[in-house]
Amino acid sequence: MHATRSRIPHGAVLTAVTVLSVLASTAHAADTLSVVTFGGAYEAAAKQAWFEPFTAKTGIGFSTESYDGGLAKLSAMEQAKNPTWDLIDLETNDAITACDEGLLQKFDRKQLGNTSDFLAGSISDCAVSAMVWSTVYAYDTTKLKTPPTTINDFFDLQKYPGKRGMRKSPKVAMEWALIADGVAPKEVYKVLGTPAGVDRAFKKLDTIKSSIVWWDAGAQAPQLLADGAVVMTQAYNGRIDDATHKDGKPFKVVWDAQVYDYEWWGIPMGAKHAADAAKFIVSASTPQAYADLSKYIAYAPPRKDAIPLIDKSRLGDLPTAPANFKRPLQIDATFWADNADAISKRFQVWLTQ
Amino acid sequence: MNMPLQPTATIGATQRGGDRHAWKRARRKAAVQALLLALPLLVFLLATFIAPIASLLARSVQNPEVRGSMPQLTAALQTWDGGGVPGEPAFAALAQGLRQSAEGGQLGNLARRMNFYQPEFRSLLMKTARETRSQTPDAWKPALIEMDPRWGETETWRLLKRAATSPTPDYLLNAIDAQVSPDGSVTSVPADSAIYRAAFVRTVQISGTVTLLCLLLGYPVAYLLATLPPKQGNRLMLFVIVPFWTSLLVRTTAWYVLLQPGGVINTALLRFGLIHHPVPLIFNRTGVLIGMTHILLPYMILAIYSVMKGVSPVYVRAAQSLGAHPVTAFIRVYIPQTLPGVGAGCFLVFVLALGYYITPALLGGAGDEMISQLIASQTNEQLNWGLAGALSCYLVVFTALFYFVFNRLVGIDRLRFG
């Protein structure tokens, strides 16, 4: 041991280590953006519409990772002062909370140029909207003879017997219950803000509780429908569209009472390639970039100038198409940021009753 | 007579004493060597396992948010007696603290912390922070109460004071559905938001049932494996070992495919006309029990098998030759000799089942949430790491408690696991 150790001069070891680490760091600095998204069909579409063209243009590559939302990991990275992500795909409530908590860097909207055609509220202090997505319900056309058309049909076990898939979360479930119980979409959060309103929503959910199959991850919804485990299911519209167009499944979306929301790009505080990430956000928010995404997945652009660039036949699949946008509800992220704890607890209790 | 003996005895004693010292020295050296050999592992465990767990558990009593971002308010609240509404200094400290924490990016953290106590506390703080930024009134107290009447309520300030106190019992109380009410007494939370006590009971129930099922299914298999000729026994052993080597997630997903309404089992039963509607085998307790029993069964079989291998057949033969019925001999002579294995198997399965997460999440329904799932949801979704820490504390304590109970009943100290 001693002999071998003394035979190699320390200097040589040091040089070797330095050379190796420099090599490693330059290899790393040859710029790969570490992106985290919700994965699945959305990531695949983002790859085709945004990542690959960006790499072709700038030589900056991407390494992708997927997650199911939530700020736990981002928060842990921030506390450890070692963020490994450069770019993060966020839901609205997380984008707001993360910005408030200093988990995201501020984004200067001047970089985007003219932003007058962006939909209201689609650019925040820390994040830029990536697309508009929607929670809808879908059914298997081969299983149901009379097609359901309204949210009331989802809650109607007499007319449409069978299991329903729902996300195991009070979000959207509470809103739908109230709309099906006769509350107008614009009144929903006012009613849900009162204890009586919460009771009313649970009472409506009680009527179908025995027929609900709960899912957690977005990919489970089309799977449940394909397996015949449910006759209709709550789902993200893009997932259903993907199953219909790519896998040829006989699914159909019911747009009544769709609950839509923006999806966001944010840059974690302390990200190692923040400048490149910002460059990417700018390139992904041009009208053409938004229109390109809609080609690969049925999510809508958050800016008006992108609409004319989208294929006519494709427009009908998007949440914001006039025919689909008759009775929409935008999810109120602030309401949920305030009430998620309390309502989630009641939801948990209700689930086990 | 005694005199000549004395020196001899002393010499003998010193000699023996010297031997003992040498022996002790050698022992100590061996112990140090052993410790040095194990040191890398110990350091590794300490750094990657014990320290993170300890820090998570410590979170259950820490209360850093308000103290860290609003030190002046914390000081002002310490002098407040808790009656009525505090005076102007506390209001001024609040306004100043909110402004500072908004600039320092700590406001969201603070607001989230307060929202654990009361819904809409978050938006109250956000709104107040936003509006105080543009104001410089002569007195903050009337200005803030004017802005939102909640600042004039004792309850608002009581909660702020609770949040400014560290260490806090609140997370540990919340984890068993209790809270400190305004008069200072500990009460249960309203029935419609009490979830954790029921979840702990459910976790123990599911784990107990799984343990029992594993024992009933595993004991005969272990007996068969232990009594077959080695060649056949080893071949059969593969059927136990291969699933044991397969990933938990793969096995759970396989059950998902088998059990679902359009899955293999239901399709077969429907085809043979044994049933007319698919039997609900998944998204309920049945699915959880099937999945968990299958995954944990090898632990039970291997633990019992290892003990059965060492049981000599002569005792049962002796009992039978003395006139015992084979069943009596089996129950009164054979089974007692295998009890250490049964104890070890039950303990292993039960303790592993207590922390199960993936299987109940995939195969269970709404009423089958185990405590780990609730811990995960607090960690990942609600970001309430204090409560997650408190729930984990109880889980650790329960596991230790069960260890002592099992130890008392069957003496785990004497057991071998393989």
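The CA atoms of residues 78 and 100 of chain A lie 14 Å apart.
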